[in-house]
Design brief:
The protein is an alpha/beta fold and about 180 residues long. It has five helices and seven strands; from the N terminus they run H-E-H-E-H-E-E-E-E-H-H-E.
């Protein structure tokens, strides 16, 4: 059997860049909306979603893809924002078996949201996140930071002619009583 690969079609396949928190990931489901949308559009999926993800993570990852030339005006981005209080911090401690961290340089990226100190594996990270949550989060300041960063991000997307869809979500909790 002789296979002929059309490299032009393969290399020019449009991409769907999906960015968001656990709402955009598969979590305990069999599939996610980014996976289904990529199939529907026949786009290659570049999944930038993460459980406990933050808006800062979204801005960092999508901007880096644009800077590196991976994301162009031929592609599509979906953005699912989360709470403005979520953050990322670099930690000198490696990822280990933690699903809420990414390896980075010689350490890891630690994801913060309220109560995230409860599932950390390292005592220094537990103490840091608990201290940060208790003493260094202010809703008005976080809202202002979000508005400014979102403004800058949207103008960066526009100046690069990036096709983007912002997805507004609400959390739905299903309780199985039976």
């Amino acid at each position: 059997m002789d296979f002929h690969w059309d490299m032009h079609k393969i290399s020019n396949m449009k991409k769907l860049f999906a960015a968001g928190c656990s709402i955009s990931t598969r979590c305990s489901g069999k599939t996610s909306y980014p996976e289904e949308l990529a199939k529907l559009l026949n786009y290659e999926l570049v999944n930038c979603t993460a459980g406990c993800g933050s808006n800062y993570r979204i801005w960092r990852m999508i901007t880096k893809h644009i800077m590196d030339g991976n994301l162009t005006s031929d592609d599509l981005v979906t953005i699912q924002y989360t709470e403005p209080t979520r953050r990322e911090f670099w930690s000198r401690f490696p990822k280990k078996n933690d699903n809420y961290k990414d390896e980075y340089d010689d350490g890891s990226i630690l994801r913060f949201k309220f109560d995230s100190y409860l599932w950390q594996l390292n005592k220094e990270e537990i103490e840091f996140l608990r201290t940060y949550e208790t003493n260094f989060v202010n809703d008005a300041f976080e809202k202002e930071n979000f508005e400014i960063n979102n403004f800058n991000f949207q103008h960066m997307l526009k100046s690069n002619n990036i096709n983007v869809v912002f997805i507004k979500t609400t959390r739905i909790v299903i309780i199985d009583f039976f």
